[in-house]
Structure formats: C-alpha cells, structure tokens
Specification:
seven-stranded mixed sheet, Rossmann fold, binds S-adenosylmethionine
Length: 263
C-alpha cells in the first residue's frame, strides 16, 4: 500500500514537493517537441501542478487527462487545455483507450511494486510516436550531512531519514528504481531514450528539509514502532529546520522515451 495513502498533512507535503521539483520538471518539458493541441495523461497527479503546466503548454484545442487514487477536479488555467480527472489505481485498473500523445508521471512508479508491468501498460496506451516521461528520485541512502551546527545533529538527521526510507521500502518502494528506468524503457520497446538528472537545493531550512520533517511527522507512529524514540523524533523536527544544516540532495532522474511510429 502507498506509504502516504492515509497520511496527515498531504496538502503541505505535496505543495512542498511541487515547489521543490516543478522547476526541474519544467526544464524537462521544455526539452520536448511543442505539445500544442495534443492529448496527454498525467498519472498520480497529486495536487496537479504538472497537469496544469501541461494544460498551459497544450492550449485550448488539446486535452489533459489526470488520474490518481482519489481524483478531485482540477481547474485548468485560462486558455489552457481542459483537465479531465478520474480515479484510477495503476496497480489494478485498466488505462482508458485514448490516443495519448504523451504521458508523464513523477514520484509515482517509485512507490508501486508493479512498476514494470505498469510501464508496459503506459507504453501500450501511447499512440505511435508518443512520448513517455517518468521522473523519480534515486534515494537508497539518507542524504549526506555536509554542515551542521551541532555534531550530534548529523546522527539524528541520518537515523531518522534512514527510518523513513526503510518504511518506504517496507511499503514496496524501490529507492534505486530511478537508475534502472533507462533499461526499463528500452526493454518496454521505447526508442530515443534519454535521461536527465537534477539535484534539488538542500541548504537548510530549505524545501527538501521541510519535506523530510513533514514525512517524519506523517510516519511518526511507524518510525516509533521501528525503534526511534520520541526524543530523537522531536529533535529531528528542530534539526531539519535549522539554517546551519546543509546536506546533499536526492537526484531526480527524468527518463524520456518515444514509442516507435507504426509501420
Ligand atoms: C509522492 S506523490 C507525487 C504527486 C505528484 N506526481 C507530484 O510529483 O507532485 C505520489 C502520488 O502517486 C499517487 N499514487 C500512489 N500509488 C498509486 C496507485 N497505485 N495508483 C495511482 N496513483 C498512485 C499518490 O496518490 C500520490 O498522489
């Protein structure tokens, strides 16, 4: 089951993710052909910033379909493509038969054990010549602490982020999947496969540290069950908010591939 399916503070979590990653995703979308008038699918759309970004780029003649486990309506930007939302569990539900010219998903397949079967179904759903864009973090280890005010902070930061990662793994996440997407795209029959990598800003108290603090609150009871006591979990909230904390970041892999044209 998705680790944050029933978590508190989901809006805050997703807003933080969007602020952290939307600039990288916009650059990836900039590198694609002009999508004006096309029909796209956004999977696991969260709060929908990238569905809206696609709508802006596609314009009023095209369509954006956006799907998530629990799909709420999304307002399209003025002069954007209409955004049609629908609920769908990628593990079990069939994708609608549409002539998708493009499909995008960010931080979705990482979490779902059936990711390779889903990838193959996403390729099936693309029209010939269509493009698939999958973005995921490569995050098997906690970020390294480069600077902190108190040497004890490093231990607190590393232990709690390691606990978050262990919890995600126990829920079926593959934290190394991002580095395997290029091969997975080729195996799924996509061509012109390319990968771009970007690192998020990680000086404190920045967005990445705000996200870790939020995740530690969301998963607190499970982190406690795994052996992290209240003192370390409380201290982590302070450490993650300290201006002096500087860490490495997780790398976002954006993998792009094209479905071969028919014939
Ligand atoms: C970490 S959030 C990322 C949200 C958004 N893509 C973004 O980057 O801002 C993961 C999203 O995937 C969705 N998700 C998780 N498991 C899913 C599944 N089995 N089927 C469809 N969506 C799923 C979650 O509901 C959530 O919105």
């Amino acid at each position: 089951m998705y680790a944050f399916a029933e978590a508190d503070d989901i809006t805050f979590q997703l807003e933080t993710l969007q602020s952290l990653l939307d600039p990288s995703t916009r650059m990836v979308l900039d590198s694609l052909d002009d999508p004006t008038g096309q029909e796209w699918l956004e999977i696991g759309y969260g709060l929908g910033s990238i569905a809206r970004e696609l709508s802006r780029r596609i314009g009023p003649i095209g369509v954006v379909h956006a799907t998530d486990l629990d799909a709420r309506p999304l307002a399209a930007p003025v002069d954007g493509a209409p955004i049609r939302t629908f609920p769908l569990d990628l593990r079990t539900d069939e994708l609608p038969r549409r002539p998708y010219r493009g499909i995008h998903g960010r931080l979705v397949l990482l979490h779902i054990p059936e990711r390779r079967a889903i990838l193959s179904r996403l390729v099936d759903a693309l029209e010939p010549g269509g493009v698939l864009v999958v973005e995921d973090w490569y995050c098997p280890e906690p970020p390294r602490v480069l600077a902190c005010a108190d040497p004890a902070d490093e231990k607190v930061f590393t232990e709690v982020v390691a606990g978050i990662l262990a919890e995600l793994r126990s829920r079926g996440a593959d934290l190394e999947w991002a580095a395997a997407t290029r091969d997975a795209f080729v195996e799924a029959g996509l061509t012109d496969v390319r990968v771009t990598r970007s690192d998020a800003d990680c000086a404190g108290p920045g967005l990445a540290h705000r996200l870790y603090a939020c995740n530690a609150r969301q998963l607190r009871s499970r982190l406690a069950e795994s052996g992290l006591d209240d003192d370390i979990l409380d201290r982590f909230q302070e450490v993650a908010g300290r201006p002096g904390l500087v860490t490495t970041g997780w790398r976002l892999y954006s993998t792009i591939g094209t479905k071969p044209a028919a014939g």
